[in-house]
Specification:
The complex is a heterodimer of chains A (792) and B (340). Chain A is built from 18 helices and 39 strands. Chain A is α+β, with helices and mostly antiparallel strands. The longest helix of chain B has 32 residues, at 56-87. The chains are: A alpha+beta (792), B alpha+beta (340).
Chain lengths: 792, 340
Amino acid sequence: MKIPLSWLQDWIPVPLDAQDIARRLTLAGLEVESVDAVGGRFRGVVVGRILSVGPVPGADKLRLCRVDAGSGEIQVVCGAPNVRDGILVPVALEGAQLPGNVKIRRTVIRNAESAGMICSVRELGLGDDHSGILVLDDPSLRPGDAFTDPEGTDWVLDINVTPNRPDCLCVRGIAREAALLLGCGLRSPEAGKPVDAAGDAVDIRVEDPVGCSRYTARRLKDVRIGPSPEWIRKRIEAAGMHVVNNIVDITNYVMLETGQPLHAFDADLLDGGRIVVRRAGALGQFTTLDGQERKLSAEDLLICDGARPVALAGIMGGRNSEVSEGTRRILLESAHFDPMTIRRTVKRIGISSEASIRMEKGVDPSGTRDALERAIAMMVELCGGHPDSGVTDVEARPIRPVRIALRPRRIGRVLGAEIPQADVLRILSGLGMTVEGTDPFEVTVPTRRPDVTGEIDLIEEVVRHFGYDRIEPAAATNVPTVIHSNREDEFIERLRDILSGMGFTEVFNNSMVDRQSTDLFFAPVPAVPVRNPLSPETAFLRTALLPGLMESVRWNQNRSVFDLRLFEVGHVFKHREEGLPEERVRIAGVISESARQKGYWKSRSPRSDWYAVKGTCEALAEALHLKDAAFRPSPERGWVSGSAAVFTSGGKRIGTLGEADPSVRAACGVSERVFGFELDASVLLECLPQSPVARPVPRYPAVRRDLALVVDAGVPVGSIQETLFLNGGGLLVSADLFDLYQGKQIPAGRKSLAFTLAFLSPERTLTDADVDPVMNGIVRSLESVHGASLRS
Amino acid sequence: MATENLTGEIRKIDEAFQSSLAGAKDAPSLERIRTDFLGRKGRIARLFETLGEADPAVRREAGRLLNELKNRAQSAVQEQAARVSAKGSEEDRPDLTLPGYAPPVGRLHPLTIVMRRVKSCFQKLGFAVAQGPEVESDYYNFEALNIPPDHPSRDMQDTLYVSDRVVLRTHTSPVQIRVMEKQKPPVRIIAPGRVYRRDTPDASHSPVFHQVEGLCVDEGVSFADLKAVILAFAREMFGSDMTIRFRPSFFPFTEPSAEYDFACVICRGRGCRVCKNTGWVEISGAGMVNPEVFRFAGIDSERYTGYAFGMGVERLTMLLYEVQDIRAFYENDLRFLGQF
């Protein structure tokens, strides 16, 4: 809501300072978002004297003026008919900023250079006159003087009114708050001559008292439609509305002042001169005065005449009864409609107006008559009208002020501070409430405050005006006796630490993705659609994290950032027929292999390949002490076939890993090979062993033996290790592969493997006599089971 | 040979050994000394051979001395060898300017870093971490928070819908209700998490962002407690001289409601572009839990009072690290992420 300070000043008996009142209003919950000067001093506009006026070749209407701008002589092209030499004019110099965000630059017009602009009244934002340039007649002015608005500076406050305060969507409402903040009374501006309210009644029938609680109207005749006086136009425009004609402008002016929307019909266009308020029912469509044809639904509230709809109640009038130049008789409506009813129509049709903005939040049901009379008085004075009927006020469903009990002790309990009774009374009465009794206070709330319905609302009103800054922070707050740990949250943070400790950098991707991305990895799951997405690229919720990580790889790779190790933790979603979608927390990572990998001077850099991603999962299992971590082949969409493995612990499926399929990379725009994993954090958490029980470290040394053998190239190393442990006689504690070799000296189709075996007994130091027979058994089994031959 | 001769010979060898050893600066010369004195044909061995010819009485005493010399010489050579090899030869010495072999360094996302700081701060104040789903029912996201259907306050947030009754949560406030349904007071939780709005992305808007919600419900909890907790938080995050400001505002689920501001973290209140010369930066909303919300959660609002607060993690992070564009958090450019 934009309010000129001068308008506010009409209601406040003490002089206002724009910045001061803006601060006070902000600290009372009416946040002033900006304070802008209008008129007054213009930056970059100076007084200039026109020294000579000459023609611009090829342009009849343009003149080339030489102007003394004080600091020197400049050349300006001007098209105004009243330009002549010798006069003083406002000149906007290069760099000047004019209303409407016009910035003045040095330009060339028809080959003539122009160093600025000689301004009209309208260009300066001082009024509507654009018939010619403004000629300054003050003889004391000198070229080069800063140009100032003869009427002085005004300020426009842009106030962010929260949706609970429809009473503050008008000058009077803001003034009421300001008066209480300043500790002065509220004064009423000159209201014009009262107009006798008597006369015939208007024929009004309210068929729907739920939708329309009150309808007040009066007819005027002999009105002359024309432009409004400048002071009205200025205020309406400063408030951000457009001027139309004197009648419509007055309805808007009174709405801006009182908050009550008004509508003027051309009374001669109303069939039978009647007003019927009803729901649309079967009435199909209706053309609003903006020329749009609106499809009606049965619940829409309409104003009809004797035959047809003439307005969407509280939202917009109809084209068929619009006030136009030829209008002589008007019917002025001031009504209170049900906010919910108005809002449903606003939302359904997607239409909004200054009237509906107020109506859907709730205007004052007691205010219809005052606003109507104020507008009638202005119209009689400014549009030459005469009453053609009496004021007709139909109260179809009276809305009474509510009474609320307010316990003084409760104020202290909620706020943690005592507020003096005098302040409570001062504030409540300053807001127009009447207070009776003392404990509790019996408070009667005016009908313009639909937001105040309970005791807590009154407490808020009290502290709002008492000052939040006057409530001291409590010195001590209670300490809880029970600590609720969040095991899952702590675990997720631990996973983040482990992954980042292994060189992975964390990324955050959007959870909203395109359709294609939900199908890239893993068995298809029904994706959750977003019904009103911003774009098709964000029309579904992600079903996996890997597509987002692929996008992160693409982003970096396109910016020549390679050798990536990235991870992400986040929710993935699966549609369910009933209830909310299934959400799971996943953790996923990728390693990208770049041809442009950084080398290390001393040796080859660590490989970024499938074994790196498996090693990451193994290290994770090791870090978390997972039992029986295992990797088994398992074809899975998105991975190169043969590279896909499922990662399990204790038989529970934690997730999968593999190399991203080239088709997936192509779909994601990634040119490098990418290896990745995606794990379910909840399953991982289930696999965590109980808290450890410490065992003594071995007291006796291990005996180590190296074992080198040659087997067929297709024999999995894992199966050999199984055989080793199976035949380890309970003494073998580790069998680490330290070399794998194929090539020279090894027959084709065979490979050489070398293990370090460690034997350990908890009871004594092992000797060769203990280990030799076990080794012999191991070698025999390797020979018979795997066709292995020992390498010497 | 007489005893005197023998002991004199031993002393001579000892002296010769000491002086040679003192001059041995590298491994080859040390090896030469070892061979000369301690080798199989070395001077000490040769003297041992002559011992057999001496008197038994002389032999014993001289044997003892010679053995002693041998042991001493052996350990001296070893020590010197260790010293020489530690110094290293010219070609073994590292070039201190060559890069070392560093394991890869991973980093946490700046939002994680700040989220952790926020969590840690409130956990120290006795708040537990609670969570809820990101896809929420209309009931938890709106209705139970006193935002009825067809109410103008729904316009305060642009909502993304999954269906008529299911939304992408627009704030972490629904967790308040979910916790209060399960846990009777005292309740003291924070709910960090991801939220969604139908906002076109620009430098200060992202359709996906993160909030931390706080809730404290107990007997005797007041607005003054709320101010104390927010002040403690402000100081923990931005330094012990930080000041805060509460301004009245409107949220359907709190009453009285407030927006809370911190003294501008860039200019410390002097006025700058970030705070638009007000000296204050808006952080988020807070207030006393509306009795209507207690009614939905089944908590007696006469006996219990409570406060709730929220904050935007992106906003805090942008203030802490002077990040200019919120979209940087979701682009995941390593040149950005590597700075935190």
